[in-house]
Write the structure tokens for this entry.
Amino acid sequence: MSHPKIAFIGAGNMAFSIIGGLVKQGFDASQIWATNLTEDTLSSVKDEFQVNTTTSNIEASLEADVIVLSVKPQVLKTVVEELSDILEERSPLIISIAAGITAKTIQEWIGAESSIVRCMPNTPALLQCGASGLYKTEQVTDQQAEIAEQLLGAVGITLWVKDESGIDAVTAVSGSGPAYYFLFMEAMQQAGEALGLDSETAKKLTLQTALGAARMALESDDDPATLRRKVTSPGGTTEQAINTFNEGGLSALVNKAMKAASDRSEELSVILAK
Ligand SMILES: NC(=O)c1ccc[n+]([C@@H]2O[C@H](COP(=O)([O-])OP(=O)(O)OC[C@H]3O[C@@H](n4cnc5c(N)ncnc54)[C@H](OP(=O)(O)O)[C@@H]3O)[C@@H](O)[C@H]2O)c1
């Protein structure tokens, strides 16, 4: 792994996880800078990973090869404008993980056609079990794209989308996806309780089943539809449940829900560009 100088602007949850993943993989901590407006957050990241820290975004960015924008979307414009001279003059690779802000909007704020990789990680990245969609502007070199993959790869799997609109779809699938599974787990736990199990038993059975099913789907050569057919005996209990889901229009409902998430992601990009 090459060790470029990386500055994380905003040392919150996501930056903490990515830095943790990088350091765990043997990335040289002395090449990493993390910034935050408050010293408290910085001391925890410094104590944990021995990276360089500063409350000055400019100081961290002055010599960085890669600048990771890991602040909340609402403060991104202020941060980009603060750094715009450095970003324009030094042309580092910019990696933005801020939800809903397009690469084009960031280029407009900088006032230059910068190399930008826009990423949509998801919450399991906090456990290094994430799934990130990545989009790159045409200015990004192959080497820079590889760096972005290494960086987000430190907290899970990475997949590229060709068009930036693909990030709206990624948001609907993996970005918001953990909440869909949580919702399904809630419903299964409640249904288990309605069938007479105590709450703890219903919860444990639901969660372990979700883990087991996910591992089977990931580790098997069969796709999920084949796995489902294999555990659905004709006339059996699973078939009764699957038929009930199908009669209730589960596929159409999932389709509708994810289209709504994708549309909202697109709308938010317009709102956040202002
Ligand atoms: N968490 C997720 O699962 C997830 C998933 C997908 C995308 N994202 C994106 O990842 C980004 C970071 O999310 P997060 O969950 O890590 O948020 P977070 O924990 O709030 O981290 C953001 C950090 O930026 C700091 N900050 C605020 N203003 C700053 C400034 N001007 N200069 C430097 N640092 C500043 C904040 O400090 P204070 O707290 O002191 O204000 C905070 O520590 C967001 O844009 C979010 O959309 C997150």
